[in-house]
Amino acid sequence: MSSALLKACLSSMRDALIVMDDKGCVNYWNPKATEQFGYTASEARGRYLHNLIVPSAYRHRYEAAKVEFNRYGTGRAVNKTVELEGLRRNGDVFPIELTLSSFQDDGRWFCVGVIRDLSEYSAVRNRPSEQEVLEQALSGINLLRVYGKPLEETLSAALPHLLSLCSGSAPQCSIYSMNRAGVFLLRATSDAEAAPGALQASISLHESPWGADAEVADIQAMLIPEAPIAQSPDGAGQTCAVWLPMFGKKQRLQGLIKFAAVEPPDGNTKFLNALQQLANSVSALIERYNLFQQNHRLRNIIEHNPVAITITDPQGVFEYVNKQFCQVTGYSRQEVIGQTPRLLSSGQTPPELYRQLWTTITQGEEWRGEICNRRKNGELFWESEIIWPVFEEGEIVNFVALKEDVTEVKQQKSQLETLATHDLLTGLPNEQLLRDRLEQALANAERDGDSRVMCVIDIKQMRLINESMGLSIGDGLLKELALRLKDVFRKADTLARLSGDAFAIVCCASNKQAIIDRVAAFCNEPFITPAADIRIDIYSGMVEIPAHGRDAETLLRRVTAAVHQGKSKEDFNTVFYTEALDSGALRTVSLTNDLRDALAQDQFRIWYQPKVNIRTGAVTGAEALIRWQHPQRGLVSPLEFIGLAESSGLIVEIGRWVIQEVIRQI
To answer: What percent of the chain has pLDDT over 70?
Structure first.
């Protein structure tokens, strides 16, 4: 073979060919070596090879091999093919395949190296398989975080994974999610040219390839041919649009994925199945996002609930308390977690209630009730609580409690009860509460045989004091009287204000005279007011319990009758109830009713009493006297009915009738 032909063959080799002498200098350097390493033949010839193409990491191995080669013309790599790394002129290190052989000329050893650039081969060899790409994409989507980010941002992070299976010059991917109205809203797109307001753009099902009449169960991945691929050499290829459904739980259609400008590989079914797996993964991602959002909303509802909420373990140790609990109790969450409800114990709740509560919830039932607890600052407060167990696989794993601070409600209720049962001026029980205390006294008397008495006192000149000195003076006197009564009687006794100037005392009947003496004693002491020092006179009546009545109504009626009887006495004296008071009261009521009919039925008569001059014996005039001729009672004395007429207001009409009748008769 001629040298020219040999040179042409060496120059046209696909691989670099380098010849090195026994000193390690380059003797021959073909054009492919120039292409691979960046040195021209003239630059490389005569230079040490290790300074040109051997990376620093391999130079110690190169020096050892060169010594062995110079001695024997052999070495570990001679007549073998090995994979190493080469060094380009620009400093890049790249993979190479090296085949070495040797020959001897004039007693000197020469080495011939054939070097192939493996950069492209390595890229192809290291390229993952379609299955590996799919698995990496699925793993990437599954590892995406769904918390702390908007859904659009999460789905945008999934786009590179979706596009990893697609080939083409510029494939695009868009993700749509379906809202409650059945409209698909654009949530994420890889189209860099999309308008800023493109997100939330919508499509309906009839705008999709399946059409509005498609049954959800029949919707499957669909590949639709698009324009031919311009760069395809034979013009036969074409791009495709791929539509993929996303199904959630129970095969509910919850979104669509659209790929555009995709070049599907051979075997469309396998390609579509792989994309559908990615779509299912995105669907699971959306469900994870929705579940997180739902849990996040629920946690916010619990955390910011206006009712205190606590969660404990089966032993009652706090695992969670919400913000309202901390505000109500004054404890921070860190101070409470790991503690038990004993932290709030006030010592005011009976132990029996706690035992009943614990028994109820540990038996799997709900407990409701009110408990008095203590805040961190020591203040007592009332909570209305609902506590129930939470089960997992038949076992109690937690107890949940809803706690509402009802302290203010109970205070208001107590105030309303006080207003309903107590006198605003004196703070004493009113008639309503007195009736309840009387019923209790009757029940105790029937059970224990213990008798009591009720004494009612009425201030004689109260009306005069109010009219002459003013209501404020009268109110002050009533307050002072209430305080004196409290000082005189025991706490076990009941003091009450019946009406404007009437007070009642229910106390032990062991010594009725002592009660009378105590009342008389404080009545004799003057009441000091800004207007004057006032002494008061009192009417009083007394009944025995239960001797004078078996119910509160009867006792009050009879003690009132005794008080009215006492008004007829000039000095202080307590009137004890007798049955005669009842009969007299009944007669008074009956006469008062009959008196109203007397005028209309012409039952009154005029009697004249002459006026006689005692010296001469001559009649000088006459005094007209009224008499009442009752149809059943006969002649009723004026002493009986004149007082009734005055108290009932009929006295004016009766007086007018007397004048008119006398004039008529004259």
So the answer is: 88
pLDDT at 266 over 70: no
> What is the per-residue pLDDT across 542-581, written as a single tens digit (0 to 9) for each?
888 888 888 989 888 888 888 887 776 655 567 888 777 6
- CB-neighbour burial class of residue 84 (10 A; exposed 0-12, middle 13-18, buried 19+): middle
Tokens standing for residue 83: 């994979």
Concatenate the DSSP letters of all residues of 318-358 into one string.
EEEE-HHHHHHH---HHHHTT--GGGGB-S-S-HHHHHHHH
Which of these, 401, 284, 272, lies nearest to 340 by C-alpha position?
401
Concatenating the DSSP letter of every residue in 584-617 gives HHHHHHHHHHHHHHHTTTT-EEEEEEEEE-TTT-
For residue 566, what are its two tokens?
């006492």
Q: What is the pLDDT of residue 582?
A: 64
Q: What are the backbone angles phi and psi of residue 386, rounded to the nearest 5°?
A: -125, 120
- With vertex at residue 365, the alpha carbon angle to CA 362 and CA 370, rounded to the nearest 5 degrees, is 90
Length, in residues, of the chain: 666
Report yes or no: 523 and 484 within 8 Å, Cβ to Cβ.
no
> Would you place residue 364 in the very low, low, confident or very high pLDDT band (cuts 50, 70, 90)?
very high
User: If DSSP codes are grouped into helix, strand and coil, which group holds residue 57?
Assistant: helix
pTM above 0.85, yes or no: no
Helices (H) then strands (E): counts for the chain = 20, 26
The tokens of 250 are what? 């129970």
Contact call for residues 40 and 57 (beta carbons, < 8 A): no
Contacts of residue 42, defined as CB under 8 A and 6 or more positions apart, other chains included, come to none
Per-residue model confidence as pLDDT tens digits over 444-468: 888 877 788 888 888 888 888 888 8
pLDDT digits (tens, 9 = 90+) for 423-435: 889 889 998 899 9
Q: Specify the residue for token string 């009450």.
A: 496
Q: For residue 660, what are the CA distances in angstroms to 307, 654, 655, 656?
A: 79, 10, 9, 6
